[in-house]
Amino acid sequence: MSTYKISYFNLMGRAELSRIMLSAADKEFEDDRFEKEEWPERKPNTPCGQVPVLTHGDKQIPQSMAIARYLARDLDLYGKDNMENTMCDVVLECINDVITETVKLFFEQDETKKAKPDIEKNLMEVIYPRFLGHLEKLLDKNNGEWLVGDKLSVADLAFFDLMNRLTAKKGVSVFESSPKMKKHLEKVTNIPGVQKWLEKRPVTDM
Ligand SMILES: N[C@@H](CCC(=O)N[C@@H](CS)C(=O)NCC(=O)O)C(=O)O
């Protein structure tokens, strides 16, 4: 039986979605974490000189989103046809857009810009409500059950990963515009494999 190994820094970062997917699918995996001092030695042994890397059997897969899509196909966490798979991809890209906007707040190097309330205001009043409103429409089309199709998919888990981290940093007020999506986060949080992961994952800041 081939095993899964996720190699990444000792952070949630770009590896967390894959870890959550494996846990939600109740798959054992090696959570191969390392500190940044070890990186120069490891870097030449990675396919793109970056992490995360998924090792499955004797194959190494780089690029977090390629890993997520590979796992989605492998673990039955994609849709049932091309259109549903594409809708999962749409949700992943929407999440990517939100992350791009959010990191401006958390990782802005220029302290004067970081303190600027307009980044925060834009996130809370424009970016998050627009994103949640878009996802709410998808949920409504599926009778409020799942973001895509009639079962749990990578779309729900990526939504969970983003919002679980956002609420940890900024509180549930990020859901002010969308109680429905707040409820959806609770539903995904309560999936046994997700719960198990939340209980056992190392506590890290990012
Ligand atoms: N597009 C890549 C970006 C990967 C990436 O930027 N990885 C960073 C850590 S988050 C890294 O490996 N940095 C060390 C380096 O580039 O030497 C992905 O999504 O996996």
UniProtKB/TrEMBL annotation:
BP term (GO), one: glutathione metabolic process
Residue ranges of domain GST N-terminal in the record: 2-79
GO terms assigned for molecular function: glutathione transferase activity; prostaglandin-D synthase activity; structural constituent of eye lens
PROSITE patterns given in the database record: GST_CTER, GST_NTER
EC number: 2.5.1.18, 5.3.99.2
Keyword Transferase: yes
Chain's role: S-crystallins are structural components of squids and octopi eye lens. Contains relatively little if any GST activity.
Family membership noted in the UniProt record: Belongs to the GST superfamily.
Protein's name according to its UniProt entry: HPGDS
Species of the source: Mytilus coruscus (Sea mussel)
